[in-house]
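During the second year of the project, the team shifted from modelling isolated chains to modelling whole assemblies. The rationale, set out in the original proposal, was that interfaces cannot be judged from single-chain predictions alone. As a representative example for this report, we include one of the complexes processed in the last quarter. Its constituent sequences, exactly as entered into the pipeline, are reproduced here:
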Amino acid sequence: MELDNLKSSWKNVSVDLSKNEFDIIAATKKEMESPLNELHKKMRKQIRILPIIFSFLVVMMVKTPGLSNSLLMWMGVIIIPVTIIYYYFNINLIKDLQQVSGSVKTDFQRKVEKLIKSNNFYLKISRVIFLILVITIELILHTNSLSIINGIDLLKDTLLPLRLVIYAGAIGLHYILSKYTYHHYFGQYLNHLKGLLREM
Amino acid sequence: MKKTDLEIEFENNLKEYKLLIYKVCRMYADNHNDIQDLYQDIIIQLWRSYPKFRGESKFSTWLYRIAINTALTNFRKQKRSIQTSDIELQSIQIAYEEDVGLKEEQHQQMYAAIQQLNDVEKSIVMLYLEDKSYDEMEDILGISNATLRVKMNRIKDKLRTFTNN
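Output from the structure prediction step:
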């Protein structure tokens, strides 16, 4: 049997779409069950929790004597806003990915480019932040302002070459973690789109 | 609840294309629940994109683009379908009691063969069955006319092999 023989029956396919379950407006009030939407929901939830944790840390640092000099607290105060910004960008990225424009292939190409660009941007930005952090630590050590942050004197006692190894290790770990994080959030989606483009 | 003007306009525009959306769903989902879920997802995606529809392309072209795009990227459901398809691959029998047409055995066989194609090939077959010209297909899918012709020939060969086995 040839595909052309199916044409006439395909044209005659009919189904009762007047049932309530296919009501258009009712459907538009619901949320889509796509993986992107699930990710969107997850990130929205996390971005709401983070400012609460941040506020809690700041209040603790102000109210509890000695905590304002704690290295861990300072790390939290720096990392949380950066994470909020990261989630904010990702939520915007998801919103953009949920839009459909142009032909199917053009739209997939646009999304793949967007995902790759945003990943590179995130990697570059986080490396810059990391570099600033390293420079700040070294400045604190060189100006002997050790009282600013408790525990930083441990680094002062470490030789410069060893410190550089620590920094390099941290950069390497950050690279692996950010790759993993990005893959965890968008990797599956990106690979799926790339696979579809290969088939086109 | 009172419908907004945009909702009414959207609903009116969509009225005559409900069956078209259903056909897209049928091509990609192989059971009633998946068809229903995909149908709903396509409607939501159409609704989200509707305010940006400015009539630069035909309404049906715009609708096909979004419907196929949603079906192709809706891979969570594909995974679910793959699991059921794997079980049924030996003797695929997809019954759609509610459908009129595609009743005869040969048609069922051909339909089962189409289900074995990859997602992009399915979209090409669907547009072909809808009697779309290669230019229209190119407009919807973004695949060049020449590539589409080559792909269509390959698909026809594949389907012949599937139905003969």
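The radius of gyration of chain A is 25 Å. Residues 160-199 of chain A form the longest helix (40 residues).
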